[in-house]
Amino acid sequence: MSNSIGEKFRITSFGASHGPAVGAIVDGCPANLELTAEDIQKELDKRKPGTSGVTTPRKEADEIQILSGIFEGKTDGTPITGVIFNKNQHSKDYSMFKNTPRPSHGDYGWMMKYGNYDYNGGGRGSGRITIGHVIGGAIAKKLLKTQNIEIVSHVVQIGDIKAKPQDFNTIKENIEKNPVRCGDADAAGEMEELILSKKEEGDSVGGIVETIAVNVPAGLGEPVFDRLDGDLARILMNIGAVKGVEIGLGFDVAAHTGSEINDAYQIDDGKVTTKTNNSGGIVGGMSNGMPIVSRIAVKPTPSISKCQDSIDLEKMENKKIEIKGRHDPCICPRVTVVAESSTAIILADHMIRSGFIHPSNLEF
Amino acid sequence: MSNSIGEKFRITSFGASHGPAVGAIVDGCPANLELTAEDIQKELDKRKPGTSGVTTPRKEADEIQILSGIFEGKTDGTPITGVIFNKNQHSKDYSMFKNTPRPSHGDYGWMMKYGNYDYNGGGRGSGRITIGHVIGGAIAKKLLKTQNIEIVSHVVQIGDIKAKPQDFNTIKENIEKNPVRCGDADAAGEMEELILSKKEEGDSVGGIVETIAVNVPAGLGEPVFDRLDGDLARILMNIGAVKGVEIGLGFDVAAHTGSEINDAYQIDDGKVTTKTNNSGGIVGGMSNGMPIVSRIAVKPTPSISKCQDSIDLEKMENKKIEIKGRHDPCICPRVTVVAESSTAIILADHMIRSGFIHPSNLEF
Amino acid sequence: MSNSIGEKFRITSFGASHGPAVGAIVDGCPANLELTAEDIQKELDKRKPGTSGVTTPRKEADEIQILSGIFEGKTDGTPITGVIFNKNQHSKDYSMFKNTPRPSHGDYGWMMKYGNYDYNGGGRGSGRITIGHVIGGAIAKKLLKTQNIEIVSHVVQIGDIKAKPQDFNTIKENIEKNPVRCGDADAAGEMEELILSKKEEGDSVGGIVETIAVNVPAGLGEPVFDRLDGDLARILMNIGAVKGVEIGLGFDVAAHTGSEINDAYQIDDGKVTTKTNNSGGIVGGMSNGMPIVSRIAVKPTPSISKCQDSIDLEKMENKKIEIKGRHDPCICPRVTVVAESSTAIILADHMIRSGFIHPSNLEF
Amino acid sequence: MSNSIGEKFRITSFGASHGPAVGAIVDGCPANLELTAEDIQKELDKRKPGTSGVTTPRKEADEIQILSGIFEGKTDGTPITGVIFNKNQHSKDYSMFKNTPRPSHGDYGWMMKYGNYDYNGGGRGSGRITIGHVIGGAIAKKLLKTQNIEIVSHVVQIGDIKAKPQDFNTIKENIEKNPVRCGDADAAGEMEELILSKKEEGDSVGGIVETIAVNVPAGLGEPVFDRLDGDLARILMNIGAVKGVEIGLGFDVAAHTGSEINDAYQIDDGKVTTKTNNSGGIVGGMSNGMPIVSRIAVKPTPSISKCQDSIDLEKMENKKIEIKGRHDPCICPRVTVVAESSTAIILADHMIRSGFIHPSNLEF
């Protein structure tokens, strides 16, 4: 078993890039949440490629159908199934990859482990399968909204260009205004230029995506092995192309002392807060009521059109490879949607697990 | 449920810093593994404090007893229970922390979530409970050794002092020779000095711990939600004080292009390898046969003797706090043992899950 | 989470009687199993109603579509999704059941627990949702066949009419020849008559279904809480209308002594067998190599056209109810298919868990 | 993994009959439940052998120690560990069973599956390991008591002697007055005589144990695979010696019609009840507010002193076996305590899962 995540709010994902369909079942969403296909569709549209020069020009008409779980406009506690039928996927010949794994792609692992590997468009290793994450995330976000929790993911670095910190609402507005989904309008322009120049070279570039969740109550997370930071790290690291996850100050803690970065508590207008948020809202594996801040390192798309060294696994000999086609020169803008969805899934799960949301019925 | 991890090789941990005992049950270890209390004791001794100036001078006589799971010197497939009875733990008065959470400690979350919080020595939030991890890790390492898999964790950064890269065997040797458990003998000296100077100031300092696992076969990890990188990220982030996890190049991928860091495949002496290992041995969530390399960011010990701002939760007012006592000025050396154990647990679990180790009996 | 079962071979089921679709995801089926939609369709056809006088005359054109998990005619290790779109389901008005739970149906629980209950045709409480079980069971049976394991379920009692014991192959043949799916051709006729007479009276009748699995190796089952008998009891009791489960002699053990029913071991043609099989193939929670025999008690269909007492939950007053429509006068014949599927799912799961079937790839 | 059960209220059991200790960890009990070792001890004392002629004369001084999870007399949300050190267990030589499985005992499965089998006193297959169930059950019962839920298990049949039905309070009283733990004082005497006569013959006898739980709210159980009846069936069937489980009318439903046994709803003093309780309090996999009634078939103790046929697995030849020692001539009285505990564990788990008990803190 490997295609499910979450204990109470649980996603089971299915489908391959060029198979008949992709989708997900969301089990454990409480009854009486208003939900329409449109709620999911609008999140899917954000990750859809072909909307600007910085993503692949491939067009994917990702139209969601809900097969179960809604009764009279509201969830009814039964599993919610969302499916998108794949269309026009067999336009290209992928047979050159049958025995030749693409460098820094998952192909080799799939071949070794399962033997029968659907190499068309990366099969189930394709980024396209994150549609399942987004279906789950859209429902999770709607559920969290009933508790006033909001989440935003945005690009904070592409190559060596870094965004300046912005407040939550500015980020939410700005990411819809530039194709990079960067919260800093100035940096966004430079990032776009860099991506387009790499695209021209037949190359790709990496970056960093930050996610912020606000209004999360204190006490989410189950020590010592289902901690909130551990569960977030897992789901975020599970996103293809992610090679690092940090919470709060992250790797910067290494070069600091306790007296410099400890988050002092204070009573602020009758509420407990911390003066700084170097912990990124999580201490001891539990939320402390401050904004939850994570960052993920996203590697450059491994599909590049430059010639690369690989092997022929059947003949067991070295072989050159060129990956033609229309690839994302930078995957970060689309990863923001998946990071936001993944964070929402974990938070929704823990809100139920910790008793803040009733496990079966919102009207209780 | 929150104190278990692993699907097939599963640790359930228990106990609090000042309670009667701490320990763990390891369920799912196949039968016929030779195992003695000594195998576990020698790992516990590595994380034991009081062995040098860079750790707390507290003495803990952590003597393991095995209560179940061994028959005639070998595991018998039943749960292995290891327990350490706590001794002399009630020497100190912790009552000043009853309503006053220590900055950047988990206290506040425990208080909010459970109400009845054992604040003595951090209760179950104490670093002492990683004894459970080490019990599990010791057994996992012994199990992995039957498959030729070896793991080492070492300190690669303290404050702004960085170790130079060393080969696997050098690291293994060097970490036993310096109290910092650093693989680079030169850097180790500087690190020790830095830690001692922070200790003198009543302060603490952070660092980075790297873990390398060799001889791991290709194909470990279950896409898309029980990937090997996700599971490693989760267990490593779950270690107290860890604020970041990276695999391979980690956050450095952001500033690179695909052509710079893609790992090209090659046939090398009849075996598939990659020319570089920027992926850290994991691509597409599965191992590729190369060494698995992770790094974690460890924050400075939040317990410092300098005066800090906090609050009184009963009176709901601000309050100063000073944390007296004998704390680790830098937790990194001891975290190496926990990181090594945690990595071993995940690898053992996935070796069974992926069919490389028989689930119930090594002699099959 | 409530719509998944199995650890390694895992079914996640979805859909409601009158919703857009019903189906299931099967996660954890190893790669390289030959599988077609036809393999599943032929099992679904066995549970399809409308094929004789003893089942409901409702016609359901249950045509399976496979949305994922098959590549070039074989499983590829990724989740297999089967879906059946519901057709012509809204022909009837169920609104009288909105606030009036049907006696001995699950309605009341659904109403109390989830609030928003799809009362059309029983919603997700309908027998129709066992299509998910059958999808999973069809794949499990195909997988077990590679290990020579075969399963058959047959009706052994309807009302007070009992079938005489028959051997495995006779049962397999006979159940296809009579609409009751009884292995004893003589009893089958009497059973059919009894069912038709109860149908005439607007009533329904109960019965007992037996399941036999042969060629199961010794050692399946994980003491002490994932035992094979416990897991079978759970999945069988989870079938709607089942009120009892027994293994081997079952409740008859109460009136016997140890010396009467202990199963003596013997070496038989170089193989270990038992002289009797009162244990039904499971001792100490593990299979012992003998045929695995279970029986389930199936209650009479609670939907009867006779007038019954119920309540109006909105007005909180008593109310009479008559359940019109075309109901199965006896659910047992169709339950055989679900019992067979359920048994197959548990055996497939345990064959993988116990290391008899490789977890990811049949060709290993 | 096989020694854990429960999702939110989760027991992990360990230990073998003649190993150093037996016990259990209970993870997921909410904080602020008053709990002492005495609460557990008094339940353990009920299952303790040697208290009358109908159980084994073996003396077991089963003294519980709590190693974790209690702070200032109350649970604190962390795992509760109970352990009993085994004493004087090596008084007997069991080596004749090393290669010779006892008929209808689990030995053969353990030997085949794990290879290294602790055959002393049945190892982990011994009835002694149900101490873990009772530790979990004692805590579960205390937790359920806060919600007014009470459970009683009693012997309703031994051999062919059947108890007459009694009301809940009479049963509770009577079972403490006779060694058979039968709720019907008259039948109890006959049962005791029957057991003693079988004991004299070196034989054993089976029986039936019924469990009743009252004041369980409607809506427990998670369709379709974590139903309350399925979860009860599983944990009860997992008890050694149990060969059948039924809910409500159980196997008697087979010979009835819907009109005879459907449970009509009624409004009774402003509350919803059913006129009959043939469903045993569970319909559609969910509780309906009526008493939850289950019965289990308990086989005669397979250890009998009469000579039996078995085999030598090393020499692969037939061999006679006589099981000397002091065995329970009827296990039913002691099984009542395990059935009660098992039922309590499942109900506690589902009370938390369904949101009736807060998952982390009773004071919320």
Describe, in plain words, how this protein is organized in 3D.
Chain A has 364 residues and is α+β, with helices and mostly antiparallel strands. The first copy, chain A, has one domain (4-353): Chorismate synthase AroC (Chorismate synthase, AroC fold, 4-Layer Sandwich). Chain A has eight helices and 18 strands. In chain A, the strands form six sheets. In chain A, strands 1-2-3-7-4 form a five-stranded antiparallel sheet, covered by helices on one side. A five-stranded antiparallel sheet of chain A has the order 9-8-10-16-11. In chain A, a hairpin with a 4-residue loop joins strand 17 and strand 18 (317-321). The radius of gyration of chain A is 21 Å and the shape is globular. The relative contact order of chain A is 0.18. Chains in contact: A-B, A-C, A-D, B-C, B-D, C-D.
Task: Present the secondary structure layout.
Four copies of one chain form a homotetramer.
Chain A: E1 4-5, E2 10-15, E3 21-27, H1 37-47, E4 65-68, E5 70-71, E6 74-75, E7 80-85, H2 107-114, H3 131-145, E8 150-158, E9 161-162, H4 168-174, H5 185-200, E10 207-214, H6 228-237, E11 242-247, H7 258-261, E12 265-268, E13 271-274, E14 282-283, E15 286-287, E16 292-298, E17 308-312, E18 317-321, H8 332-353
Antiparallel strand pairs in A: 1-2, 2-3, 3-7, 4-7, 5-6, 8-9, 8-10, 10-16, 11-16, 12-13, 14-15, 17-18
Helix pairs in contact in A: 1-3, 1-8, 3-8, 6-8
